[in-house]
Amino acid sequence: MRWDHLSDHPAGGGETVLFGTDAVVTRTFDTPEFRGMTFHEVRARSIVNRVPGASRMPFEWTVNPYRGCSHACVYCFARKTHGYLDLDTGIGFDSQIVVKTNAPELLRRQLASPRWQGAHIAMGTNVDCYQRAEGRYRLMPGIIAALRDHANPFSILTKGTLILRDLDLLRQAAEVTDVGISVSVGFTDRELWRTVEPGTPAPERRLDVVRTLTGHGIGCGVLMAPVIPFLGDHPDQLRATVRAIAASGATSVTPLVLHLRPGAREWFMTWLDRHHPHLVRRYERLYAEGAYAPKWYQRRITRQVHELADEFGIGPARRGAARRISAEPPEGSTTGPTQLTLL
Predict the structure, then answer these.
(1) Distance between CA atoms of 296 and 126, rounded to whole angstroms?
(2) Which residues, 6 or more positions from 249, have their beta carbon under 8 angstroms from its beta carbon?
(3) According to the model, what pLDDT value does residue 27 have?
(4) How far apart, in whole angstroms, are the C-alpha atoms of residue 328 and residue 308?
(5) How far apart are alpha carbons 211 and 188 in whole angstroms?
(6) pLDDT tens-digit profile of 5-39?
(7) H or E stretch at 66
(8) Whole-number percent of the chain with pLDDT over 70
(9) From CA 82, how far away is CA 293, in angstroms rounded?
(10) Distance (Å, whole) CA 287 – CA 279
(11) Which of 78, 117, 122, 267 lies 20 to 30 Å from 177 when distance is taken between CA atoms?
(12) Which residues contact 3 (CB under 8 A, 6 or more apart)?
């Protein structure tokens, strides 16, 4: 496993080693929820990460307290990042979790720096900050408290119901700054959920999160992602999902079609060949031009979802909403829309 060569570009500028081998403690826990998992506890040297300039992400700064994700979504495009540590991008990504144990104190220090200008910070953009490990390590309360104390705007994208543990902190933060919450629910088909998102709470439990947050005055949108071609894109499936999202009280719904970057593509196609071999050739044709489905397909799904959203009384994410994610790429773009890393 490699640690020393990793570097990042923190807000203060310059290149800094993220953590060294002398700062890594590896643990396993013999409890049902963590059986088969390994946690690499590290003392990170930076936590506020600048999104590369070439990225089309609609935010500039991120905080990611974990690497790897027990949600085990077969399509997760963060899988490739585990390769930077010489960790397996398949099962290893699902079970070898890097925990930045000092994330809250690092963030508090960064926010207090006179060089920090109070820019929006997005969380849940690499792996889910409310995955199973958060129940043990409890990094998010300290992170949210630091953002609250500095009135720093932030957003969270999650599939985790554990976010409700921090409801009081989120309400306090929302009183002093812009707080945006989005929950990811690409479909409500339970059989599809069990096979492609085996480590996540069920879709209806995630929609309960939306219902609870909005009921406590915290607007919550739904990122309807990914819409999975030939498995989750039937009109009846889209209708059922949008209807359930509307019933949860979501403030918006934003559809995003599955995309398959290198790393995730190989793992997903292996899964597809095992579970739905008759679809392999169709996927090879649909994604023949790269990581994104063709524009015509993306636009068809977007149109269908928006029409259903209008029917059920909700709309796409509005300009200026906390997540600021476009449903379609900018005019003239040659690539598909950016799907957040969790998905």
Answers:
(1) 27
(2) 210, 211, 214, 215, 220
(3) 81
(4) 17
(5) 16
(6) 444 443 433 334 455 555 678 888 878 888 899 99
(7) strand 66-67
(8) 83
(9) 25
(10) 12
(11) 78
(12) 18, 19, 20, 21, 23, 24, 42, 85
On whether the CB atoms of residues 107 and 61 are closer than 8 A, the answer is no
Look up tokens 């492609």; give the residue.
196
Which DSSP string corresponds to 107-172?
HHHHHHSTT-----EEESSSS-TTSTTHHHH--HHHHHHHHHHTT--EEEEES-GGGGGGHHHHHH
Can you read off the two tokens belonging to residue 340?
């957040």
Please list the residues that pair with 26 across neighbouring strands: 40
pLDDT in tens, 55-94: 566 778 999 999 999 999 999 989 988 877 778 889 999 9
What is the reported pTM? 0.86
d(CA 263, CA 79): 6
Distance CA 258, CA 213 (A): 27
